[in-house]
User: Which sequence fits this backbone?
């Protein structure tokens, strides 16, 4: 599970959920949507009171990172410190 903190001063939690679903459908899950298997599109709003700005996204991983890339196309990585990740909740 991936935890996302929504900045509710700029957008709504519902708008973020819609955008995530839109990206998932456009990128790699078109077949899932066509087949009606919405369960794999797990994007849910946190149900804990006062944490309605938190969204959980079902993901997969950990994945191995291949570092044998072409010079003009480096891999994409996001590195977050432990404290930064813990600060969400």
Assistant:
């Amino acid at each position: 599970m991936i935890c996302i903190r929504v900045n509710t001063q700029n957008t709504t939690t519902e708008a973020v959920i819609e955008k995530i679903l839109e990206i998932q459908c456009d990128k790699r899950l078109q077949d899932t949507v066509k087949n009606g298997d919405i369960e794999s599109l797990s994007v849910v709003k946190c149900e804990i009171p006062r944490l309605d700005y938190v969204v959980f996204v079902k993901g997969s991983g950990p994945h191995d990172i291949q570092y044998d890339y072409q010079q003009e196309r480096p891999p994409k990585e996001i590195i977050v410190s432990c404290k930064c990740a813990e600060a969400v909740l």
